[in-house]
Amino acid sequence: MLELYGKTLSSRLLLGTAQYPSPAIMAEAIRASRTEIVTVSLRRETAGAGSGGGFWSLIRSLNVDVLPNTAGCHSVKEAVTTARMARELFATNWIKLEVIGNPDTLQPDVFGLVEAARILSDEGFEVFPYTTDDLIVAERLLEAGCRVLMPWCAPIGSARGPSNPDALRSLRGYFPDTPLIVDAGLGRPSHAAIVMELGYDAVLLNTAVAKAGDPVRMASAFADAVDAGHAAHEAGLLEPRDMAVPSTPIFGKAVLT
Ligand SMILES: CC(=O)[C@@H](O)[C@H](O)COP(=O)(O)O
Asked: Less crowded by CB within 10 Å, the N or C end of the chain?
């Protein structure tokens, strides 16, 4: 079981709610993913066309927790204000904190992120920070009050998969007791399995499911891959070896002379 800020979860997949072909397909994909947490971008959903009451009642009908997201915020002030609005709207202290530093790569402004995380943690928020895989930034976020870390594995929407597995492995090694969730950049179920095999606690994804040819089947495929990767990690993976090791016992083999 996974515990995030005191909430116990059986699913290790968190799913975004943007970019689906239709609300009905989004709902089916959420069900197929077996997720218990969906992210909702406050700015996108309150400002966007086609949102409103229908969207919220659909989300509510799915019996999942909502993790409001400060997606699209480019400054500390904007992110903090959006988080405060989200708390009012969703009646939750949870906030997925994004402070975007670059409009092309959508990479986090890690300095602004730490500052905003400190402000929000001091106000009683339970912060899920979208960060890079940098170890020092991770330490600063924990010092700022975060009890979960969400490093990227590649830029949002890129579908590239883990571009620096060594950095992810290093974060896992340094923070064995902190829930670590890979957020952003996963493109395939095998990418999700890879990060789960590294010992990550969960993954958060959106684009690879929402933009798939069949989002519902893809959601189910990701759910299976997350479970498989987690089970493999728990089962104890064999370390790669330089030399061959016979896998077939030779006792009893016929001796030819
Ligand atoms: C949905 C969300 O919260 C974002 O962090 C992001 O959209 C996830 O990244 P991908 O879209 O690359 O999966």
From this structure: C
Does residue 157 have its Cβ closer than 6 Å to ligand 1? Answer: yes
Length of the chain (residues): 257
Taking only the tens place, the pLDDT of each residue in 143-153 is: 999 999 999 99
Phi and psi based region of residue 178 (left: phi greater than 0; alpha: psi -120 to 50; beta: remaining): beta
184: which 2 tokens? Answer: 């952003």
Question: Could you report the predicted ipTM of this complex, rounded to two decimals?
Answer: 0.96
Q: Of the residues 7, 77, 96, 253, which is catalytic?
A: 96
**With 90 as the cut, is the pLDDT of residue 44 above it?**
no
Judge whether 48 is annotated as a binding position: no
Question: Which DSSP state fits 175?
Answer: -
Ligand 1 neighbour 155 (Cβ under 6 A): no
Higher pLDDT, residue 54 or 115:
115
Q: Assess whether the C-beta atom of 206 lies below 6 angstroms from ligand 1.
A: yes
211 tagged catalytic: no
The annotation status of 184 as a binding-site residue, yes or no, is: yes
Residue 185 alpha carbon to ligand 1 centre in Å: 7
Q: Is the pLDDT of residue 185 over 60?
A: yes
Residue with tokens 């498989």: 228
Q: Which burial class, exposed, middle or buried, applies to 19 when counting CB atoms under 10 A from its CB (0-12, 13-18, 19+)?
A: middle
Q: Residue 47: its pLDDT value, please?
A: 47
Tell me the whole-structure pTM to 2 decimals: 0.93
Say how many Å lie between the CA of residue 43 and the centre of ligand 1. Answer: 15
Residue 45 Cβ contacting ligand 1 at under 6 Å: no
Task: Report residue 59 as tokens.
Answer: 């989300």
